[in-house]
Amino acid sequence: MATTIDWFGGDGANEILPAESGASDTLGSFGANFGFSIRVGEFNNTSFVTNDNGTTNFGQVPNLRWANVSGAFVASELTASELLEVDNTEATLRIRLQTDSSVGTQNSAFRAFDRVSIASSPSGVTVRAVEIRKPSPSIRGSGNTNWTTIAGTGDLGLFDQVAASSLHEWYVGITVSPDNIGEKTDLGYYFESEFL
Description:
Elements: E1 4-9, E2 15-16, E3 26-30, E4 46-50, E5 60-61, E6 64-68, E7 71-74, E8 81-82, E9 93-113, E10 125-132, E11 148-149, E12 156-157, E13 161-178, E14 188-195
C-alpha cells in the first residue's frame, strides 16, 4: 500500500474524494439544509459532501458553527459548547494519513484557498478552523481553544503526532461565512504534513 491521505466527515460516515475525481469531491457549507444559502455575516448551519458546484447531496457530515472565538454550536444545538468540549466525531472533517511503515508527523497544517493556488485566499468567504482533540466524551479535550481564521498562506497548524504509527488522524472543525451575496465556489481545502 502506498502512502494515502483520505478525508471523511468527523464521524467517519461519508468520504470526500480527492479533488477533481468526479462527483463527491467537495465539502459544501449551507444554511438550514442542503442547497440553502447562508446569510451574509452568518455562519453555516449544515455541511455536506457535494460536487464542485454544490448541486448534488452525497451525504451530511457533522457541522460546527461559529458561536464566539472559543465556542461553537454543534450540529443544530441552540447552546454553544466550549471548543475543548467538542468530541472528535462532532468535528467537520477527519483527515487520515496511512503509511506502509510506522512514522511520526510534524509541521502538519490545514488551509483554505481559492482552488487555483494554495497561497491564494478563497474568494468572498471568511473561513475559520479549529483542531479538535477529544477522543472520548468522558475527558476534556486538548485541541485548540480558539478558532483560527484561515486563508491562503494563513493556515491552521495541527498538533505534531510524534509517536510512530502507520495511521494518523486529525479532526478539524470548519465554519464558513459569506462576505457578500452570491454563490461561493472558489473555496478549497488543503492539508500537508511531514512524516519521518
